[in-house]
Amino acid sequence: MALRAAVKRWLPGSVVDGLAQARRRAGWLRRPLPPLEPFPQVRPAAARLLIGPTNSAGQGWAWARAAERADADVAAACFAIRRNSYGFADDYGVPVPVYAHPRWQQAHERYVLGTFTHAVVESMRPLFGSRHARDAGGDVAVLTEGGLRVALLFHGSDLRLPSRHAEREPWSPFRIQDDLTERLEEQARRHAAFATAFAGGDGGGGLVLVSTPDLFDDLPGATWLPVVVDPDRWQAPPSPGRSRPVVVHAPSNSRLKGTEIVEAAMAELSAKGVLEYRRLDGVPHDRMPAALAAADIVVDQLTIGLYGVGACEAMAAGRTVVSYVGDTVRARVRERTGLDVPIVEATPDDLADVVAALAADPDTAGERAARGPGFVRAVHDGTISGTVLDDWLRRTSR
After folding, report:
1. pTM of the predicted model as reported, rounded to 2 decimal places
2. CB-based contacts of 248: which residues, under 8 Å, 6+ apart?
3. Of 6, 48, 67, 220, whose CB is crowded by the most CB atoms within 10 A?
């Protein structure tokens, strides 16, 4: 132990990190690699696109399908690190122990370099595990040197700078200075620095995509790749307009959604007999359409200032969605699409009043709900996203 401490004290940090990584890899190499499914065959096409590895809310898979629908000469695949049991679709994936195994990492690198022409790397997570670096910086270099064209894609907390958000948003969850805020601050600064350099390279730079318009505050030069939902999958009969509506909230991240505020407000209204409140926790993705169909009002989030996949699914189901979207995001969507986001605006200060008013006026609630499916079909059915990806694939195909 004394010798190890001395080594750490006198050797450069990069050398110590390299030795530690080598020791970890040696340990992994001694572990047996579990039987693996073969990597999927990708049909011949002018552009062969890989998206991964986070597949957040199933969006990697949805964007891959959107790219294929936009151009018959595109073949796309979504690769995912399979971390949870929500059951989002992907084209292939592995659990974390396999993702961390050096033999799989080497095999996956050979497969990707020999199969695809383009790659969209999500959230700066490496496609090849820790083979080249702890983030995707090393992978991006390997992919580029191997002849692939690379784009970066960010979903939210991977790029959103907590300190900037706390200055801008009065209800920001990042006004709490704790380990999570510090960790996200460091990560966002690192990712933004890499993305800025990546976008400013020779030949016009690389493409950087963001899935929600609020992220333009953190990377103004990024391109919006709207989240995608299948409107037909979420279509539901109209809400019956109950005098005591069913209100649901699905806290995928309780802190970022403002779940404590939602539950306090809904508990108050439920106690008064205004509504019935249901919290949707851990519902598998294939059961969510039925859960939304059984609701009248969906409260999404109250602290960030955006709308994402969950809100789009609820709008596609024709449910009244209540959330804190914010004027800036609404203006950005209107500027790019000509459409208004049909989400009822609410904040932590007025959520109870907003939901109570909707419960008392089912006609107004129904009118707002009826606008949701059309908005989703126009903006989030994959047509716009497919065009964004196809423009990049055509521009960069050899």
Report:
1. 0.89
2. 277, 278, 279, 280, 291, 292, 294, 295, 297, 298, 299
3. 67
